[in-house]
Amino acid sequence: MHELSVTQSLLEAASDYAKKHKAKTVLSVNLIIGDLSGFIDESVQFYWDYISKQTIFENSALNIQHRKAKLFCNACEEEFFLERDLIPCPNCNSINLKIISGNEFQLESIEIET
Amino acid sequence: MPKNKIRIVENILNANDQVAQENRNYFDSKNIFAINIMASPGSGKTSVILKTIEMLDGIRHIAVIEGDTAPVTIDSERISQKNIPVVQINTAGNCHLDALMVRRGIEQLNLDQVDLLIIENVGNLICPAVFDLGAQYSIVIASIPEGDDKPYKYPNIYRGMDCLLLNKIDLLPYQDFNMQYFNQGINILNPGVEIFPLSAKTGEGFENWIKWIELKTAQKSK
Question: Distance, in angstroms, between A103 CA and closest chain B CA?
């Protein structure tokens, strides 16, 4: 349920940009969620629908794009994507890994009419 | 009406991260070592903190910020019996502390003499992992009855930590806890992280943890 506070922050950030660009209508808000971020789409959507009522975002689409977790193996310098569970490096079996991406909770863009 | 796509690419946790950075600067300026203790409910957070306070009595000046989801003061009362500054933050149902709540906690405490600030987060393995509080170190308490699979089920919290306390090791003879499996999960997420197996009940293993925390605090409060 930590999605509520972060969805509120998302709404605030998107509002700032909409105002700055003098939006009359916001058609869509595009969000990137990394697979390792710990945020769940359905919860974000649920809170978004609730808190965006009676704002400029009431009728705008919230599009969520996923980003897979990408890891770098410090031992053999191979990069690989995590499909599901945490695994050692598929190339050399090392567990000395670094996360390159997958932590995102990022406002990517908004589409507006001015 | 003209349509326009505005490219933004902004990390949404930035507002929290900014306040967290201000907290961190504040701790640095006051030479305070602040630690964020995260764990599931019932892992023994408060018991570990109480034992730590006891063992550092007379060595370090400690203060505690207690996060709880409901206005119950059981934990803060147990800690204030130790005669150290403690403030309770009621998150009003929220599942985690954030940087702003911690700042409000700081404002209510006199930290002039304090060199170690212990922040007890809300009992939860998911949400607290996402919110930086500005503490210099994040410490996770796991416990034997929770099971050996927790690193695999809640990777985020173990990934961001600087030190792990494995509590209730006195219960090992009664539980099917595969230490090797547990350690492997921790190592994938956080290679080389410091792990202290201990028991807040028997005191076993506390010496190493106290030595570590005392060293870190000393380095900070110079």
Answer: 9
d(CA B25, CA B9): 26
As for the ipTM of the complex, it is: 0.78
> Which residues does A contribute to its contact with B (CB < 8 Å)?
1-2, 4-6, 9-10, 12-13, 17, 21, 24-25, 27, 36-39, 85-88, 95-97, 99, 104-114
What average pLDDT does range B114-119 have in this prediction?
A: 96
- CB neighbours of residue B170 within 10 Å: 16
A3-20 helix and B14-29 helix, angle to the nearest 10 degrees: 110
Cβ-defined contact of B10 to A36 (cutoff 8 Å): no
Q: Are B165 and B140 in contact (CB under 8 A)?
A: yes
Could you tell me if A107 and B10 are in contact, meaning their C-beta atoms sit under 8 angstroms apart? yes
Q: Which backbone phi and psi does A2 adopt, to 5 degrees?
A: -70, -5
Smallest CA–CA separation between A38 and chain B, in Å?
7
Q: Choose among A25, A39, A106: nearest Cβ to B11.
A: A106
pLDDT in tens, A21-72: 999 999 999 999 998 888 889 999 999 999 999 999 999 999 999 999 999 9
